[in-house]
Amino acid sequence: MTTPTANWSIPTAVRFGCGRIAELPDALAIAGIGKPLFVTDPGLAKLPVVADTLAILDKAGIAHGVFAEVKPNPVESNLASGVDMFRKGGHDGVIAFGGGSALDLGKLIAFQARQTRPVWDFEDIGDWWTRADATAIAPIVAVPTTAGTGSEVGRAGVLTNEATHTKKVIFHPKMLPAVVIADPELTVGMPPFITAGTGMDALAHCLEAYCAPGYHPMADGIAAEGVRLVLENLPKAFADGKDIGARASMMSAAAMGATAFQKGLGAIHSLSHPIGALYDTHHGMTNAVFMPYVLAANRNAIADRIERLAAYCGIAGGFDGFATRILALRQELKIPHALGGLIQGLDMNEARKDLIAEMAIVDPTAGGNPVKLTRELARSLLEDAVSGT
Ligand code: NAD
Description:
Layout: E1 13-16, H1 24-31, E2 36-39, H2 42-45, H3 48-59, E3 65-67, H4 76-88, E4 93-98, H5 100-112, E5 140-144, E6 156-161, E7 166-171, E8 179-182, H6 192-211, H7 217-239, H8 244-260, H9 267-279, H10 283-297, H11 299-312, H12 318-332, H13 350-362, H14 375-387
Parallel strand pairs: 1-8, 2-3, 2-4, 4-5, 5-8
Antiparallel strand pairs: 6-7
Helix pairs in contact: 4-5, 6-7, 6-8, 6-10, 7-8, 9-10, 9-13, 10-12, 10-14, 11-12, 13-14
Nicotinamide-adenine-dinucleotide binds next to helix 2, helix 5, strand 6, helix 6 and helix 10.
């Protein structure tokens, strides 16, 4: 009997639990950070959650800078300003605090601050990451305030290239945060739209990782339990943002999704990335719109797996039962069935559709789809999501 070979990596130290943000000074000490740059987004910077966290640093006598210029779907100019502040402030590490946008940009600042090559030289293609000076990457402590992207346990940062209108995944193994503080109380203030969108992002990660071809039973197990956690807890967190049990389960599911997707993602993400880059839509919401169409298109390749997943999640009816549950979940979370519900005045001409299909098939996630993502398939999935049929 031949045994399979695979590359696995296990994420980092995660301090999980309510109130654990109080351990931030200790986490910094363990990461070897004496003068952190605190990276967050402007919306979050106005909320008490940031003031309270900065007060913890002040009380511990930790000098810090604050960079709060991260826009949702961060862009290269955000990175340039953050790197500039990191260098001028003499910082030796980053606290990446927020949703996926702030986490990614914080990680990218820590990465890029002491590199000499442009960030686009480190796109997640083959072994481009080996071009980086690995000794120059500053340590990161990550503190998620949404429960979706799982960027806190990931080795990549997503950045939009404004010149080419493309969303790029920048990867380096050392971009993995040294310590994560996963405190579900920090997510309580998320409004329902963000709760729904980020939660569906976690679901998309778990589902696509679970369905991706390849041998990775560890990722499969993590992904299946992540799907169960989302199905049971996302409606509760959406209905009552203060349901801390549901918030905690969603925070776990988010980290599990990002742990599992080292196995691969698929067409949901391949299509969501160009839409996010061209229309600046919320990433998780965009994934949620594409989810049922991609599930249906992949059916022949994944029916057995989804049947097993449905049984594990206590859903009757095999593949059809699972697909129906996804549609019902989207409806419960008030997620639109077509892209027009996310993008006001959407009027996509044929050339634009061709462009999106082209961008989707070269997206690094396309290779993980259980059915080959051809130009024709990408185009037809896009048509489905535009027409809502
Ligand atoms: P986000 O970080 O863009 O935040 C969305 C909004 O939620 C912001 O306005 C923010 O201020 C607000 N917000 C965040 N936390 C809040 C809280 N606790 N209370 C109130 N408001 C809060 O959203 P996101 O979905 O977490 O991240 C999306 C980004 O992450 C995209 O750029 C996407 O491409 C990227 N992403 C990265 C990975 C990865 O592996 N690195 C994976 C998936 C997505």
